[in-house]
């Protein structure tokens, strides 16, 4: 990932003054504090707030970078990110998504979904361009405290009947605490990589225990799955690092390519007693949703139904082509599987662009030093598990949640552990 130089001393052509340098430091440190200390905790009180926090942090970051390095260098850094291989692949996916709105059954709904997607993506690009290569030394401990605090808040609110939300008559339903615990389940992994590099394995284990406890005490099956999958992937990566790295791309590719028939496959290989055991997690209903949206994907392989069209899918003519027994679940809003949503809304072209991005992510992880891979693989595995099992693909909070760990992995590392940029 491309970043600007850490200080103006590394940029002899910078025209910054002592005053502007001080202002830049304040802005950049403020952005770091928002990302590592404020965002996780605020999600426990406002579970859609992460895109807003990222946006404010991005504005602070751009302001600080302009003060310290000048607008020209900021624009150059943004351009390098956008025109990188990953940036171009992302632009291709976004361009196809925009084109597909032309055949959406509700273009207004689709345009709103597109705007929701673009906001956190734009903030992520600005942060990638302008955040210092190393965050302040206090950042890892601040993130650790924020993750523990968020996990505790989730447990207290869910198990004690929302004592804090009652203070301002907030929404007192257990599912509102799902997003914050999912968020910290991903943010833990860049923190773990940083702490392991510093030799603080005990602290990393304590923070993981807090996240796991928060997930268990919450009503979020998705967070429990994320913790289990992340921990499993981490253990495998430590035990067989080369095998884990070699299997990453094929597993991701297979998981994406199977999506149109994913529900059918899961239904056939899952014993009835397993569905009974997972009844509280609505496993049977979830598989029925996957089957229904898989039927849509198979009938619109070339084009999909249009970006962001899932909430209005019952009004799409494709419903008449779906077998009657699978139509009811098309009214749930989205497939509860981000990869399947790519297939159903964007068709094979969208799936091809998504596959390209997944393979690029796998390649990047394989190029990391062996001792840096386990946490990265764990984070990617947990994110994919969450995406395949639960949330809508384009929700702004989810885009922010998967973007932030990418931004933090390098920047939380101590200087001695930094690897050369690709």
Automatic annotation (TrEMBL):
KW Transport (keyword) present: no
Subcellular location: Membrane
Cellular component per GO, a single term: membrane
Coiled-coil intervals: none
Membrane topology: Multi-pass membrane protein
Superkingdom of source: Bacteria
O-antigen ligase-related domain sequence ranges: 207-354
Segments crossing the lipid bilayer: 26-46, 52-76, 88-105, 111-131, 138-156, 176-195, 202-219, 248-266, 346-365
Keywords: Membrane, Transmembrane, Transmembrane helix
Protein's name in the database: Polymerase
């Amino acid at each position: 990932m491309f970043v600007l130089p850490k200080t103006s001393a590394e940029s002899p052509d910078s025209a910054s003054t002592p005053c502007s340098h001080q202002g830049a430091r304040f802005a950049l440190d403020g952005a770091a504090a928002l990302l590592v200390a404020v965002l996780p905790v605020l999600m426990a009180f406002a579970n859609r707030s992460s895109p807003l926090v990222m946006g404010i942090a991005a504005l602070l970051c751009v302001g600080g970078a302009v003060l310290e390095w000048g607008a020209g260098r900021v624009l150059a850094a943004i351009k390098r990110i956008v025109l990188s291989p990953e940036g171009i692949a992302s632009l291709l996916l976004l361009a196809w998504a925009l084109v597909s709105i032309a055949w959406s059954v509700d273009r207004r709904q689709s345009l709103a979904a597109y705007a929701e997607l673009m906001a956190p993506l734009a903030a992520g690009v600005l942060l990638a361009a302008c955040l210092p290569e190393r965050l302040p030394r206090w950042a890892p401990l601040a993130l650790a405290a924020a993750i523990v605090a968020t996990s505790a808040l989730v447990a207290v609110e869910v198990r004690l009947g929302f004592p804090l939300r009652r203070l301002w008559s907030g929404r007192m339903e257990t599912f509102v605490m799902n997003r914050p615990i999912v968020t910290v389940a991903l943010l833990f992994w860049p923190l773990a990589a940083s702490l392991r590099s510093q030799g603080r394995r005990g602290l990393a284990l304590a923070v993981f225990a807090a996240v796991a406890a928060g997930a268990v005490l919450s009503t979020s099956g998705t967070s429990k799955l994320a913790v289990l999958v992340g921990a499993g992937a981490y253990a495998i990566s430590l035990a067989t690092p080369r095998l884990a790295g070699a299997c990453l791309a094929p597993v991701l590719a297979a998981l994406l390519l199977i999506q149109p028939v994913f529900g059918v496959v899961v239904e056939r290989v899952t014993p009835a007693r397993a569905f009974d055991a997972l009844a509280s997690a609505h496993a049977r209903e979830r598989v029925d949703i996957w089957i229904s949206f898989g039927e849509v994907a198979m009938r619109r392989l070339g084009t999909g139904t249009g970006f962001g069209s899932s909430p209005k899918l019952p009004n799409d003519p494709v419903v008449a082509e779906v077998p009657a027994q699978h139509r009811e679940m098309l009214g749930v809003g989205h497939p509860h599987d981000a990869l399947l949503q790519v297939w159903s809304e964007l068709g094979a072209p969208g799936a091809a662009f998504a596959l390209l991005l997944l393979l690029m992510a796998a390649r990047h992880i394989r190029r990391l030093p062996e001792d840096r891979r386990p946490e990265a693989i764990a984070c990617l595995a947990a994110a994919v598990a969450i995406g395949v099992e639960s949330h809508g693909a384009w929700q702004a909070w989810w885009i922010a949640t998967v973007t932030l760990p990418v931004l933090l992995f390098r920047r939380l590392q101590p200087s001695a552990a930094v690897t050369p940029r690709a």
